[in-house]
Amino acid sequence: MRAAINSLIILSLVLFPMGTWAEGMSFIRDAEIESCVRQMAEPIWKAAGLEPRNVSIHIIADPNINAFVAEGMNIFVNTGIIAHSDDPMVLMGVLAHETGHIAGGHLIRRKEEMENISTGTILGMLLGAATMVAGGGSAGPAVMMGTGQVAERNMLQYSRVQEASADNAGIRFLARLKLSAEGMLKLLQYLNSQENLFYDKLNPYLMTHPLSRERIENVRAAVETSPYSNNPAPENLLKCYPRAVAKLKAFMQEPSETMRDYPESDKSLPARYARAIAYYKIPELQKSFALLDEIIKENPNDPYFYELKGQILFENGRIKESVAPYRKAVELAPDSALIKLGLATSETAINQPELNKAAVQQLKQAVQIEPDNAMIWHQLATAHGQLNQIPESMLALAEEAMLEGDKKDAGRFAAMAKKGLPEGSPAYIRAGDIIAVANLDKKKDEKKLGSQSRIP
């Protein structure tokens, strides 16, 4: 009985945190794709009254069509949605819907609803247990089972209401941008076609989302009455999104599939971009570089083509050659932490003092942009180490360990760093902060272990 109650309490606490959702997931990072997705998301967030810098988007390497919000203001988008269509309005519809969840405070309300349902379920289970103790026989288990089914249906009904609310909010946000929800409608129609394959097996009362056909009618009505239904997607999205889709598909699928989706007869920029990546993966580097150089000649101020060329050179052992295109990419996109990381990785791999110094500067700028990126801290530790700047290297390793949740190593590295850092300097103070957090965590573990040892 105690174990059953504990499991329900735990469920209500860990259903929505990002750490729980993220467990077992694979995420992709790409400066170009992330930039394009944020270009379409930020106007929606502003239309919803949200501060864009407070919202994060995470791209999950998963071919299924899915997106969700977790832990406050974090939107998770599967690669399957991005690869589904090169029409930017489809993803904008998804982002508008997920923004509707955030603006509506649905995560907080859902957690409260879960807690209410869990409380009711626990009381029902206690009643069932009391019935059994009183000699109620089979009536006790029946009470507990019935309580669980009612709770489940209440929660699912609540979720369906939230999904419909998020649709309506998303439609309003798009209208404020003078755009219609046609992309949302397209995706729902596709989902409905998949739903029809097994509709007879579905119970609409046991689904967390309303059936697609129900949502379609609501969104279709909004599209038909919208004065913006014929408005095209913003020009910047029509330019960047087909490229982002082509790049994503080319990296994630087999080269033969890319060649099928983007045949030689297709001379568009996204198609040539995708084929350049496919040739790099085969590898047929001469063909890949020929296409990339052609694209760069046509688009000399685009950082992402230089970034890709630097990546291909680096990954094929031509490390010295990779520095120049990476530097050009950083020059054209100075606010991209990921591109700075790529350049610094090439510079530290060559391991010359001047290049290591340059790498340290790039990485210090990168951590200002993305302080929660463990890879940047790791590379900074490497660059400092190669310059024999051991205290600074240890502090960077401590930062990396903190981000990875390894408080023990974080404290150990910070203690080593503190011994060699100038007393009172910002780095010295930061090392002390990390040590304090690590020691507090250690005391909690010791206290927990001590209390467990006293249990008879």
What does this structure look like?
With 456 residues, this protein is mainly α. Among the domains are: 2-225, no CATH class; 389-456. It has 21 helices and 4 strands. The chain has a 4-stranded mixed sheet.
Q: Into which percentage range does the β-strand content fall?
A: under 5%
- Class of secondary structure makeup: mainly alpha
* Fraction of helical residues: over 70%
Identify the overall geometry: globular
Order of helices and strands: HHEHEEEHHHHHHHHHHHHHHHHHH
Radius of gyration: 27 Å
Q: Regions with pLDDT < 50 over 5+ consecutive residues?
A: 1-21, 108-158, 199-208, 448-456
Arithmetic mean of pLDDT: 81
Overall strand count: 4
Could you give a short description of this structure?
This protein is mainly α and 456 residues long.
List its salient traits:
single chain, 456 residues, mainly alpha, 4-stranded mixed β-sheet, 4 strands, 4% strand, globular, disordered N terminus, disordered C terminus
Question: What does the secondary structure layout of this molecule look like, with pairings?
Answer:
Blueprint: H1 2-14, H2 18-22, E1 27-28, H3 31-47, E2 56-60, E3 67-70, E4 74-78, H4 79-84, H5 88-103, H6 106-133, H7 139-176, H8 182-195, H9 212-225, H10 235-252, H11 255-261, H12 269-281, H13 285-298, H14 303-315, H15 319-332, H16 337-350, H17 353-369, H18 374-386, H19 390-403, H20 407-420, H21 426-453
Parallel strand pairs: 2-4
Antiparallel strand pairs: 1-2, 3-4
